[in-house]
Amino acid sequence: MLTKVRGRLISLGEEAATLALDSVELEVLVPEYARRALQPRLGETVALDTVFYLEGGAVSTRLQPRLVGFLSPVDREFFEIFCSVDGVGPRKALRAMVRPVRDLARMIQDQDVGQLSTIPGIGEATAERIVAKLRRKVAKFALIIAAEAPAAGGETAAVESGVVADAYSALLSVGHTELQAREAIEKVLAGSKGFKSATDLIEAIYKRSR
To answer: Which of 50, 75, 136, 185 has the fewest CB atoms within 10 Å, counting from its CB?
Structure first.
């Protein structure tokens, strides 16, 4: 399975990026938020985490191979679970990802159907299905992206995604709400260079709250 491509970004259209790989030029579909991030990198070598699928209707006799590219494995994973919702296929999911995964995950977790329904291709009925199926599956996406955000002094908080997810689960298990757990983790991550374990992260949260 083709899970990652690396090449020189030679062009960027409304829906796709074209990468030069030695003697081959490869078209990769990208969501809008990724297209904006890639714009300043024309001519540079970029790496995209990818998903391959065949596009075509149920009665179509011709299937088109498509490759979709993302800026990180986290974004790719979110896309795959987003596509699992009834009525949301790869094309609709691509159109919907006009904002970073963290923002979309927060809308879903907060059950903000009104905001979700304003996203391209997502009406109110689809937004309700997305919330119903994914609300309890997306918390880690908001937290994982938060862990990659710049910390104080411009440095990056080097926190493994598993550390954040384990700390989040532990906070829920002792009675914190989803919102309380998320906010507590984000506040600590914003002022730290990183944590090596969920225990260290939780200790920092409780020290901050004293």
So the answer is: 136
pLDDT at 36: 92
Query: In sequence order, which ranges of 39-123 are alpha helices (DSSP H)?
Result: 73-82, 90-96, 101-109, 113-116
**Whole-angstrom Cα distance, residue 110 to residue 178?**
9
Residue type, 10: I
Upper half-sphere CA count for residue 130 (Cβ side, 13 Å)? 35
Q: Compute the distance between CA of residue 127 and CA of residue 119 in angstroms, rounded to an integer.
A: 9
Among the listed residues 48, 55, 64, 107, the one whose alpha carbon sits nearest the alpha carbon of residue 82: 107
Length of the chain: 210
Helix (H) or strand (E) holding 38: helix 32-38
- Using 50 as the pLDDT threshold, list the residues of the chain that sit under it: 146-147, 149-158
pLDDT at 159: 59
